[in-house]
Design goal:
Layout: E1 9-11, H1 17-27, E2 33-36, E3 55-58, E4 62-68, E5 86-94, H2 97-105, E6 111-114, E7 118-120, E8 125-126, H3 142-148, E9 151-155, E10 167-168, E11 181-185, E12 189-192, E13 198-204, H4 208-214, E14 219-221
Helix pairs in contact: 2-3
Pfam families: CoA_trans
Keywords: Transferase
GO molecular function, one term: CoA-transferase activity
């Protein structure tokens, strides 16, 4: 389906980290069980609504995590996998680390939201090691999440500090998962990935043509209902 560029341009400026987190939160289906990865994805918890009835899982052993804790809410014993103080919602539960990983590996999570160094056109994910000399690999539970979750969303800046696209034809960094990513949320656009290539659901602060100049893979506009 061919769409005009203006039909997928959502805003005149690129999205901030909080704007992006708000967008991801909006797209999570009501009643979902969700894991939020370390880094940008943790912000998503601040924008989930009570009406969505989302249950957040954290791999260090908790179901029913609430938004990030601030001020008097902070309890040093209540943290997420990224060591950020969090709140607990009514009905929250705690369990052994091994049980938490069993939930991840057993297909019990509807969605995980992860950061990434690279995502390929077919949804391959690289987010644990750049291969740089002296870099400390830190895979954590990312491989378990990428393989075990029913849907994998990635949340990242589109470009590196050097201006290179993180959305690539083929990942050059060690893989976390193969063909696992379905959506990529960035400051400049939302991409849908899969066997058919990359489609663009919406853009922020740029046209589809301008976006194509930044990304070294073929892009096409997605039908308006694709991200619904």
């Amino acid at each position: 389906m061919s769409l005009t560029e203006t039909s997928i341009k959502t805003s005149e400026t690129a999205l901030s980290r909080d704007d992006l987190a708000r967008l991801v939160a909006r797209d999570i289906a009501p009643g979902s069980f969700v894991n939020l990865g370390i880094g940008q994805p943790t912000l998503v918890s601040n924008y989930l609504t009570e009406e969505q009835n989302i249950t957040l899982h954290t791999e260090n052993g908790m179901l029913g995590m609430g938004p990030e804790a601030t001020g008097d809410e902070i309890d040093d014993d209540l943290i997420n996998a990224g060591k950020i103080p969090v709140t607990e919602l009514p009905g929250a539960s705690y369990f052994h680390h091994a049980d938490s990983f069993a939930m991840m590996r057993g297909g019990h999570l509807d969605i995980c939201v992860l950061g990434a160094f690279q995502v390929s056109v077919t949804g391959d994910l690289a987010n644990w090691h750049t291969g740089a000399p002296g870099a400390i690999p830190a895979v954590g539970g990312a491989m378990d999440l990428a393989t075990g979750a029913k849907d994998v969303f990635v949340m990242m800046t589109l470009l590196t500090r050097e201006g290179a696209s993180k959305l690539v034809e083929s990942c050059t960094y060690p893989l976390t998962g193969v063909g696992c990513v379905t959506r990529v949320y960035t400051d400049k656009a939302v991409f849908l990935t899969g066997p058919g290539g990359v489609t663009v659901r919406e853009t922020f602060g740029c046209t589809l043509e301008e976006l194509q100049e930044l990304v070294p893979v073929p892009l096409k506009a997605a039908p308006a209902v694709a991200g619904g």
